[in-house]
Specification:
Two copies of one chain form a homodimer. Chain A is α/β, with parallel strands linked by helices. The first copy, chain A, has 18 helices and 20 strands. A seven-stranded mixed β-sheet of chain A has the order 1-7-18-17-14-12-10. In chain A, helix 12 links the parallel strand 17 and strand 18. In chain A, helix 6 runs antiparallel to helix 18.
Amino acid sequence: MGAENRKRTRRRGGGAEKPAVARQTRYTQLRAPFKPQGIFSDDAIANMHETALRILEELGIKVLLPEARRIYRDAGAIVDEETEFVRIGRDIVEAALKTAPPSFRLRTKNPDREQQVELGTLAFAPGAGCPHATDRERGRRPGSLRDFEETIKLQQSFDAMHVLGPSAEPQDVPVQLRHYAMARTQFALSDKPPFIYARGKAQVADAFEMTRLALDLDDDAFDAGVWIFTIINTNSPRQIDVPMAQGIIDFARANQLSIITPFCLAGAMAPITVAGALTLQHAEALAGIVLAQMTRAGSPVIYGGFCSNVAMKSGAPAFGTPEHVQATLGTGQLARFLGLPWRGAAGTAANTSDAQAANETLMSFWANVLAGATLTVHSAGWLEGGLTFGYEKFINDMEALNAMAELCTPPPEDIAAIGFDAVAEVEPGGHFFAAQHTMERYQTAFHEPLVADLSNFGTWSEAGGLTSTERATGIWKQVLQDFQPPPNSAEAVSRIEQFIADRTAAGGAEIEG
Amino acid sequence: MGAENRKRTRRRGGGAEKPAVARQTRYTQLRAPFKPQGIFSDDAIANMHETALRILEELGIKVLLPEARRIYRDAGAIVDEETEFVRIGRDIVEAALKTAPPSFRLRTKNPDREQQVELGTLAFAPGAGCPHATDRERGRRPGSLRDFEETIKLQQSFDAMHVLGPSAEPQDVPVQLRHYAMARTQFALSDKPPFIYARGKAQVADAFEMTRLALDLDDDAFDAGVWIFTIINTNSPRQIDVPMAQGIIDFARANQLSIITPFCLAGAMAPITVAGALTLQHAEALAGIVLAQMTRAGSPVIYGGFCSNVAMKSGAPAFGTPEHVQATLGTGQLARFLGLPWRGAAGTAANTSDAQAANETLMSFWANVLAGATLTVHSAGWLEGGLTFGYEKFINDMEALNAMAELCTPPPEDIAAIGFDAVAEVEPGGHFFAAQHTMERYQTAFHEPLVADLSNFGTWSEAGGLTSTERATGIWKQVLQDFQPPPNSAEAVSRIEQFIADRTAAGGAEIEG
């Protein structure tokens, strides 16, 4: 059971109304509640794939890391070392798609937190990669380690948040030491799959070692499971830079997960049409998948898509738009065309947790669910197109994630549940509050909201007339106050303290590339 | 083109950035962009239908209008005049379902505003039936004729709002004259299909006459088309009161549209389980459809569903909940089981246009679209579970309706749109802003937001740091200021003035029942 139920009971004052039977939820491993929907015809999708192959074959992509070019060349690609262009034949792409696993398990030491990753499963990740954090009490500020710790606690506290993310960047920790603090925080405060930045060979090697130590895995056990993940953003259009290429290689060698995600804003770093932006995204994702599979056949990858549009008059990135929805649906079709699990993203350009923020996030969030996204990134807490992680936004978004997780639990279909006898028992124009059928179920019948206030206007006004964003402040504060780290996390951290101390004394590890 | 585009151009200041080519939209007749989704198995749906037939056959419903009981009895139902109970055999239901039209056209004098009504079409109706109105400048107040006029102007100004609704009740007009004011306002300010309350035989007869006069139809032309609609709410559980039964009969006799909508809140006036509430809803809707078809075979009806749940600890109505989504999906399945067009409803219990309001409305709005609702009522402007029509809420909701309408326009699939040449033209790591493929399309490529602000945090803060609800105030004011009544509306109104004057002099028409 996640924090949502504990909070609600407290907020309602408990006492006489406190339920004797707590409602149990199972939000930890979801399967898509709907048949995946598309928006392009099968022919259009096949055309996009064919055109992406032509882009790779005829135009090529620029790969800045010599080792990556060597791997592509060894696989048969045509490499020009002077221009750093790599042209990848379709036979190479086909070979890579044969070994990329359609299904794998994202492991944790707590079996309840593991995620099966395949077409048909559904997982949510928080807003990620934000340089700033904001809440109503302390305002907007550059992200700090305290913000990162607090937002990891928030992520840990809700079962419908399935993996961790680099919510707010701890900018008060020097870059050469930051990956220690981020790994330590995740192992200390959570038992969910942790996120590792691919910021150069040395930092990634440190992260692998910390994971082995924290999870108490020997080399074979680490290699036999998928324990951590990173997100690889290509430099659209048609470029893979040094740390990204290195990340693909290092994660593949260690059998850890790369989510290969071109960030293609139609009209900016991608063609202005949704079909064009998707085709470029597809070509770049395929290039990354090839590099992973040519490094180690069978290494886990997720096909990534994050395609929206810019406002053409201002060039500002836009999210939750019809184009974002169309691109997400198309990404799902392309991923199913390949037979691979995939990630999409929710998002908003709003600067505060208001109706725009909710509209845009929910519009794109529904698009991801409807498209069958295996992993929906930025599903809670993301503001300003990713520049800020908002605490109150996180709580308001968790309301939607909890509701969607609830929808993944199909309603009981036993005929008895219809309650013919209850209908017979209640007179015309009467009510069912006291019916036997109601009494047997009322304590656990309905999903409980997290931040929604259902009181009437008078009661709500007397209580201060607070918006759900204002109410969310008290909720995240209570979640943080009640927070208990998961069992065994102290031991996990104790196993990496010496390593971190030694590496810190040695100067840490610089970002490369 | 709706107000959304005009507004946007003005808000951006026009001038140098003003587009030479305005983006054209076609939001007036939508078809569902997705395959309709369900949540119950076919067997479960068949069981609900079977149980509903048992409710009608074995338990019966209470019908308060003698004329209605006579019609049921003439059709073969078992009627107990003392208890007013009507038991309807399944053969009668089957006969009614054979004559209820699966498809009809909701007519207007402006062909662009007509709506084909059948499974697969999609139309949106505003928040309706609200005793109060609210906006940020004038606050929350009992609805007045000015509020009704203003909100009809708002409804008329957006193409993605397809039919009118009784947004804010004009409580400053005496009840015996209110239907004149409401009809007059709709004909004066709009050319969309008007809504008529079923508040007794005399008021409905007046409304029919005003419609004939305003639309300049002779009796045959009025009878040959479906020009107006009403919403029939049964008194769940299992009761149809006098004005509702009379409304079904009068609208059916005149070949006008009844949307027969039990309002079944699970745990209150319906069984606590979604399956149970849907079964009761289904039984009551069938009873209403039978009455319409036995009055006049082939008269237009829409199968109505508005099923959500209450918070069991407080009894407060809840909307946009997982149960509301499940019930909406199930209602769509039941309607498709019957082969009839159907209505669902979006909604929120929030007391102001905040993130909760947006989350709940959008969660239920998506459920309606996904379930294939022919008509989604309360899709914009509804607050407090229907007690208040919010002007700023309306604008924020129209953002979502416009986006959904845009999604009903499938993206172009011509292979040329992919832009292989554009990809070839732009160097790795470059941008597409100046590509030929972009230049040819940038003025019209993307949907334009209505109230969303995509500016960055600094710009947004300097402009006052307004929420989208605060920004919406300027938008609705501008829409009202720019409002022009549709062509020929002055003539339409002039044709009913004398009728209204005569009827007013005669004392109007009281509400009956």
